[in-house]
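To fix ideas, we reproduce below a protein record of this kind.
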Amino acid sequence: MSANELRAKRNRLADELKRAQAELGQAESLCQHKWSEPKYTPIYHESYLICRKDPPGVGGADRIFEDIWSDPKTEDIWTRTCSKCGKEETTTSVETRTEVHKTPKFRS
């Protein structure tokens, strides 16, 4: 294929993708969603080297560098899926609840 043919194919596929995304968005907006139970799907980020830093007071050609690393962290994410249309939603927002349990107390 020539470059012009590939460019035309790319443009045609880009237009087709836009139409398909619009149709999918419309179908999802019309769906009466039936959501699954949220699943906890965390993402773990390992530590990584941020930079190498001179220790204080050191200079010159024979400097020794000190590695500075990020802290590892886990990003809390919950995911739910609609069983009718397959739409998937994710969130990192949480609502903290404090539940009150009442227990009857009798005089005895």
About this structure: The first strand starts at residue 39 and ends at 40. The longest helix spans residues 3-30.
